[in-house]
Amino acid sequence: MTMNAIPTKCDILIQDCTLLNRDFDTEAHRSAAIRDGVILEVGEAEAMGAKYDAAETISGAGKLLMPGFADGHTHVCQQLLRGRSGGTEPMTWSGVLVPFESGLTPQDVRVSARLACLEMIKAGFTSFADAGGVHMDQAAEAVLESGMRAAICRSSMDIGETVGGRLIETRQEILSRFEELYRVYDGKGNGRLQIWLGLREIMTCSPELMRDTAAEAAAYHTGIHAHLCEHRDEVSFSLTHYRLRPAELLAETGVLGENLLTAHNVLLSDHDIALLADSGTHIIHCPKGNLAHHGFPRVPTILENGGVIGLGCDGASSVNLDMFELMRTLQLATIASQGLPIFDKQIVTVKDMLRMATVGGASAIGGDTLGVVEAGKKADVILLDIRQPHLMPTRNLAVTLAYCGHGHDVTDSIIDGKIVMRDRHVLTLDEEQVMADAACHMEACFARINI
Questions:
Q1: Long-range contacts (CB closer than 8 Å, 24 or more residues apart) made by 319-322
Q2: What average pLDDT score do residues 319-324 get?
């Protein structure tokens, strides 16, 4: 900038930080300017400080700037189940989840979703995709209140047996209620909120509902969220009833495509993997939930086929919401199950894991606008305190971050160009009130719902 040049105005200047770039390498003494929800420029700290006149400056000294994490598969209405579905029930779906969701009130969902958003913000998540539940208008309100970015849907089931049939709806009811939710909430919060269609799973959705869902998603230019190949019963059901594997059934009904996000993806055949990768379907693994109940996903084969993988927590009923733990769990389990037998400890690398945690999930929610700290991308970023004994000193910060980082290391969060958390203090939600409300509603839920 010349001596008499007028400084460029911006909303936020993150000054003199370490940057995690798109190649997942680190760069020292960088700054990032943000205006109108978008990253204007990322550059050398001294030059950026002279160039920009910021309404607010965040010191990056001793901090790492990186893309916010994207939770590619969660259930925000299940937050009040914490400690109840941690592997103690042989039939968690029919014995716990169905009666629990069936008995939730709108206010229960609002309180649960607010608690989920609070936990996610404090762990560095800036966006999430929710697989749906009941009263999702209340989840939408919590998203808008929290400042997070999300793609949410209703849980849609038109066949199968549930307790009292309370979650079963006709295809017309499912589509009508989607359209109502879409009209009210899609695009709200400056585009932070998207309303998608949901397909709970093969065993509870008819082929007719799948075809209708694919057509509706195309008409509304929106996404679809589905559980896929999560467990053996699902694959067996599909083969028995349709003589097709689940991924083949989604292809046959027109569901597969770039607007589809599938969760779990454990029991995929070679042909399934090729179908998902070739169609551009977004593949989400849920390491803790999968490993505890279903097995090891075929991560290396999916990557070799060009599949786009993201990571999901699968809700907080039995796990905490921490992307660092998800990365480590999936990498170590994959090395143990598929790397060590062939003496290949690099079968899934640190950069693979960081890509899944950021770009992988974010690409499903925001396309190519999220997941990278670069000019022109949406300003969904986080800062981590790296001046800590478990992170410093190090010869490779990105590697140390992946192996030793924790959600509690996140100090600041910016979503859509707005500061949502600063110095570990969440600005959009009253933390004490959120937790107090959740405690009250948890007690009321279990007094009311027989599980």
A1: 319/288, 319/289, 320/119, 320/123, 320/407, 321/71, 321/74, 321/116, 321/119, 321/120, 321/123, 321/125, 321/407, 322/123, 322/406, 322/407
A2: 90
